[in-house]
Amino acid sequence: MIDSNKKDMSKPNQSKEIMDRKIEHLKIPLEYDVQHSKNYFDDLKLIHYPIPDIEFEDIDLTATFFDKKISAPICISAITGGHPISKEINEILAKAAEQENIIMSVGSQRAGIEDPTLLDSFKITRDVAPEIPIIGNIGLGQISSQDFEIEIFNKCIDMIQADVMAIHLNTLHELVQDKGDISSKFFRKNFQKVRETYKIPIIAKEVGTGFNQDLAEILDKLGFDGFDVGGTGGTSFAAIESKRKNFDNKLYSRDPAEVFREWGIPTPVSIIYVRNVSQKLVIATGGLRTGIDIAKSIALGANIGGLAYNFLKSAWKDRRDKVISNTIKEIKTLKNELRSCLWLMNVKSVDNLKSKRNKCIFLGELYRWFHQ
Ligand SMILES: Cc1cc2nc3c(=O)[nH]c(=O)nc-3n(C[C@H](O)[C@H](O)[C@H](O)COP(=O)(O)O)c2cc1C
After folding, report:
1. Structure confidence at residue 5 (pLDDT)
2. How far is CA 145 from CA 2, 152, 174, 254, in A?
3. What is the Å distance from ligand 1's center to 23 Cα?
4. Is the CB of 210 within 6 Å of ligand 1?
């Protein structure tokens, strides 16, 4: 979960607060509609090819993620950790990811750093998934703290034997939540220390408001090894916060979480912005719901498609039924849709689809982002 970084809370209360928030963050997207009102992948069409000259089963979905080979360019995006229920969810997701050989991410590891009793809710992912790539997760708030210690980064890597670390940039979320941390004053200095100390790939991850081109260029030059664009069009953290009802109406007349719920850069636009200025790895998240959306992301320039909401739903069902079959089915469905999409476009492999923007037609509001 995405966390604030207040330093003035006492430890037990802090842990309790974080744990309560973890559960609210898991339940709210399942109980309310907290999706952005527009999914921008609807404004993107791929060009059909009526007589494919490839055998359906011969289509190659394999991809590489840094130095590991995966069965398809699919990532279970950062969702949770830091609560006994999160441990169950992470166990289900990691087991399914290992069985299907795709990428797994954990949620913000802040809780595991601050309270060792919560460590196992993250550690479980590596225990049940020894082979697949696992992405660790730490917040801009933690990296930007004046008292940031390099040891914190080390703990995150060790906790899950991370292959890659993501630093999540969740400024809108911090802004609209009750105890958000909105200063990034020490970010550059602390990040440089991290960069000089660790060889592990580090990616910059947005969480639903997307990257603009200028920042992507700055972060590329600063030494990030990739991006997770986390664009607008899927789960809205402002919408989640508006359901948590933290708004204090004594000072202001409107809840900023409600007012900013649609704020951000659409995922397809963000993929293009990042790819225009960086040749590094790009994960697309934010509103991907089917294998067609993964194909669209790859045609625009992404390497991998990531999904949080779909996997939150499947893992929640699995937890109730004490199985992992719903999550396995979701992964298999995404793979089949992606394969079908490639076949219907007469494209042999995921690699051959990469950055084929001439196979994409932009409509409606998405078109307007590029032609204003
Ligand atoms: C319940 C929930 C918790 C999340 N927690 C984190 C987190 O801790 N760290 C992070 O980087 N992103 C987090 N995210 C953001 C997702 O990884 C993803 O970028 C975003 O939800 C957009 O994908 P979606 O539209 O498929 O949900 C979370 C998303 C959800 C739904």
Report:
1. 43
2. 15, 11, 14, 30
3. 14
4. no
What residue ranges in 251-325 does DSSP mark as E strands?
A: 281-284, 304-307
Ligand 1 atom 19: the closest Cα is on which residue? 207
Mean pLDDT of the chain, nearest integer: 93
Return the pLDDT at 247: 75
In this structure, what token pair is assigned to residue 198?
A: 């660790």
Minimum CA distance residue for ligand 1 atom 22 = 286
Minimal-distance CA residue to ligand 1 atom 29: 79
Cα 308 to ligand 1 centre (Å): 5
For residue 316, give the H/E element and its range. Answer: helix 309-321
105 Cα nearest atom in ligand 1: 17
Please give the Cα distance from 113 to 138 (Å, whole number). 10
Domains in the chain with CATH codes: 34-370 (3.20.20.70)
Query: Rounded distance, CA 161 to CA 317, Å?
Result: 28
pLDDT of the residue at 245:
75
CA of 287 to the centre of ligand 1 (A): 11
User: Which numbered atom of ligand 1 lies nearest the CA of 289?
Assistant: 26
Number of Cβ atoms within 10 Å of the Cβ of 310: 19
Distance 77 CA to ligand 1 centre (A): 6
Neighbours of 255 (CB within 10 A): 18
Find all residues with CB under 8 Å of 262, minimum gap 6, and list them.
36, 37, 38, 232, 236
C-alpha dist (Å) from residue 277 to 182, 281, 301, 306: 27, 12, 11, 21
Q: What is the per-residue pLDDT across 313-359, written as a single tens digit (0 to 9) for each?
A: 999 999 999 999 999 999 999 999 999 999 999 999 999 999 899 99
Range with the poorest average pLDDT among 173-182, 240-249, 250-259: 173-182
Which residues, at least 6 apart from 38, have a Cβ–Cβ distance to it below 8 Å? 233, 262, 266, 365
